[in-house]
Amino acid sequence: MDLRLTEREAAFQAECRAWLRGNVPRGPALSGDTQAGFDAHRVWERALFDAGFAVVNWPEAYGGRGATPIEWLLFEEAYYAAGAPPRITQNGIFLLGPSLFEFGTPDQQTRYLRRMAAAEDLWCQGWSEPGSGSDLSSVRSRATRVETPERTGWLLSGQKTWCTRGAYCNKLFGLFRTNPDVPKHKGLTYFLVALDAPGVTVRPVERLDGDPGFAEVFFDDVFVPDTDVLGGVDRGWNVAMATTSSERGLNLRSPGRFLATVDRLIALWKAAGRPERHREALARAYIDAESYRLFTLQMATRLADGESIGAEASLSKVFWSELDVRLHETAMGLLAAGAEFPDDPWVRGFMFSLAGPIYAGTNEIQRNIVAERLLGLPRRAG
Amino acid sequence: MRFALTDEHTALARGVRDALVRVCPPERVRAASEGPLDRGLWGALAELGLFSLRVPVSHEGLGLGALDAALALEELGRAAVPGPVAETLAVAAPLLANTPWAARIASGEVIVAVADPFAPHVPWAADADAVLVPTTEGYVCLPRADYTTAGRDSVDPTRRLAQVSARPGVESRPTYGGGQVLDLGALAAAAQLVGLGRAMLDRTVAYAQVREQFGQPIGAFQAVKHTLADALLALEFARPQVLAAAWALDAGEADASMRVSMAKATASDAAWQAARAALQVHGAIAYTTEYDLHLWMKRTWALAAAWGDAAFHRARVADFTL
After folding, report:
1. φ, ψ at B229 (rounded to 5°)
2. A-chain residues within 8 Å CB-CB of B237?
3. Given an 8 Å threshold on Cβ–Cβ distance, is A2 in contact with B2?
4. Å between A286 CA and nearest CA of chain B
5. Considering only alpha carbons, which residue of chain A is nearest residue B316?
6. Which member of A5, A290, A371 has the closest CB to residue B225?
7. What residue of A is the nearest CA neighbor of B258?
8. Residue of A nearest to B229 (CA)
9. Residue of B193, B88, B172 lying closest to B130 (CA atoms)
10. pLDDT, tens digit only, all 322 positions of chain B
11. Contact B232 A368 (CB under 8 A)
């Protein structure tokens, strides 16, 4: 047990900080969920990639530098502390990337990983449907077999919803039903889909925080070749569950994000005249962010030791998502009447934090997983 | 950076846990509410080497650190072991490490009670062989003959409180520690609270797996699942704080005191939450004293209040960071 940095970790941290200090774009941040902002973000992602910082924990062959899980955490901490832009590549690199490494063919890894890391392809997730949210395995969008002299593969039909940044992405990874005759989670296949293919319609959906970056995606006999099936026909659920675990656990929300939020919260408190009545809330904010950092360090050490993270990822997801809401509620309290102004970054951050307990698997589902898989409580009968 | 226990740590914790199942089953906890300090139990704990953990090797001890002690204390909390065990092993032993007291503590010969700087009563002072009490210059160690006590009940019937009055002539004694005592005591309480909380949660999970209503175990119902999941969440995020604080004390880190405060605040709240969840899921059965849960709950309340409560320690964190 040692919470001090090794020499290598300290050198890596210094390198990250120095590069970020010299390269993070100045000026007001553009939203990653509008077209103009999106284009600016792609430029930033390319700069990260060229400097070797886009996917630090990936192998060099795909644009990474083989960083350890601890080093990845240090990079993230430096990234958020530097106020760097949100990662528009995150759905790809955090959710699809690990699945490609685990389940992808060499051809798929070659075709997709570097482009993903360099933001040449931008991926959105096609999971939910109007009739399938928490009950993900009930999805009904279909993939039917097509075999002609001209093409062999699948035709996708149906609708996906809540696709973050779907309006600006060119690729989608999604679950479609290839076999309606078996139990629901056994008949799903994980497809890698080009959104510029004939038959795709993307319809933007506005979110409560005002960003238009959500989308519904409609599929009308969209062709996908066999080479864009990830992990095998009817095996999609296994692939997706691996992904979803990354999403809930180490990858999606690193402690650095919340440590930086706490730093900004402390600055906000000071700017508000250090009001005594908020002092305890500030202390709680600091302590809880540190609890999350330590818990994540614990998980990262296990990953570094070759162990895998199981349902503990669900504990993590509940904790960070509710922490984020609390941090922003505290901020709203400090803003007082200013909490009514939607152009204040804290107000937008508060609205976005409300989504945290919902996405990446609702916290109700996460608590069920914790209770059943970590505590061993029985499933509901009937 | 590594946040992981060594195999030696894990073996120590396991060894203490298994031994305490033998040496201090719930009946022995219950018995502590009915009689004086159990010296037989103390001797059994001494035989396990618990009191030598923090005594230097030069004084017949094992010379281990705060992290090893924290792991042992978590198990002592899990078993709700009665008596000033934490005070002796985790506060008195390091404080008196280079004095003649040390070897006598290690052997189990001497039981030491320690005054929490905020409480008017010292747990177990009447039963102890010596007591560490604060003065303006630091803590002094008074042998039993040098103080009188007036007893007071605790909400925890297995904990005996006493107001300590030193006999005249105390002022010429050597003093020890100071700020260190609060850190050691608060961390020891925090470690026990994590064990207490986990014990209450585990017992409740076991109950929820067998108690049936409406044709199935009550643990199948989502309300029960979520209540217990939230208790686990609190404990699982408090425990790393305790381990990190113990490590920081051993490593001489500049922020060790702040880490102790974070540990005490989070562990107090987590154990409290586990106690409430345990009682609620059990229902009325656990509201009776025939069922053991109340002993764990009351110990939790007592330790959550001792050595600075959660609010005190959050204020201390605010002082350090804001």
Report:
1. -60, -40
2. 288, 291-292, 295, 315, 319
3. yes
4. 8
5. A283
6. A371
7. A287
8. A371
9. B88
10. 999 999 999 999 999 999 999 999 999 999 999 888 999 999 999 999 999 999 999 999 999 999 999 999 999 999 999 999 999 999 999 999 999 999 999 999 999 999 999 999 999 999 999 999 998 889 999 999 999 999 999 999 999 999 999 988 756 788 898 789 999 999 999 999 999 999 999 999 999 999 999 999 999 999 999 999 999 999 999 999 999 999 999 999 999 999 999 999 999 999 999 999 999 999 999 999 999 999 999 999 999 999 999 999 999 999 999 9
11. no
Would you tell me how many other CB atoms lie within 10 Å of the CB of residue B312? 17
Distance from CA of B262 to the nearest CA of A (A): 6
- Helix, strand, or coil here: A340? helix
Strand partners, B155: none
The kind and range of the H/E element at B263 are helix B256-282
B321 touches chain A (CB under 8 A): yes
Q: Which residues of A are catalytic?
A: 247
- At A230, which amino acid appears? L
Give me the residue from A3, A294, A381 closest to B220, CB to CB.
Answer: A381
Closest CA to A163 of A96, A93, A215, A240: A215
A263 touching B (Cβ < 8 Å): no
Contacts of A382 in chain B (CB under 8 A): 216
Dist CA B58 CA A181 (whole Å): 74
| A19 close to B (CB below 8 A) | no
Give A2 to chain B, closest Cα distance, Å: 5
- Is A1 close to B67, i.e. CB distance below 8 A? yes
Interface contact flag, B3 A6, Cβ < 8 Å: no
The predicted complex's ipTM stands at 0.97
Residues 278-337 of A with CB under 8 A from B: 279-280, 282-284, 286-288, 290-292, 294-295, 297-298, 300-302, 304-305, 312, 315, 318-319
Three-class SS state of B153: strand
Residue B225 to residue A377, Cβ atoms within 8 A: yes
Which residues does A29 contact at the CB level (< 8 Å), separation at least 6?
A: A83, A85, A86, A345
Taking the C-alpha atoms of residue B13 and residue B7, their distance in angstroms, rounded to an integer, is 10
B61: Cβ–Cβ under 8 A, 6 or more apart, which residues? Answer: B52, B53, B54, B55, B93, B102, B103, B106
Is residue B7 exposed (0-12), middle (13-18) or buried (19+ Cβ within 10 Å)?
exposed
Half-sphere exposure at residue B227, Cβ-oriented, CA atoms within 13 angstroms: 22
CA–CA min distance B318, chain A (Å): 5
Each residue of A89-141: pLDDT tens digit? 999 999 999 999 999 999 999 999 999 999 999 999 999 999 999 999 999 99
**CB count in 10 Å sphere of residue A176:** 28
Q: How far apart are CA A148 and CA A142, in angstroms?
A: 19
Nearest to B259 by CA among A287, A263, A266, A258: A287
Q: How far is CA B287 from CA B34, B283, B290, B292, in A?
A: 19, 7, 9, 10
- State the Cα–Cα distance between residues A216 and A204, nearest whole angstrom: 6
Please count the helices (runs of H) and the strands (runs of E) in chain A: 12, 8
Q: State the amino acid at position A33 in one-letter form.
A: D
Q: How far apart are CA A102 and CA A108, in angstroms?
A: 11
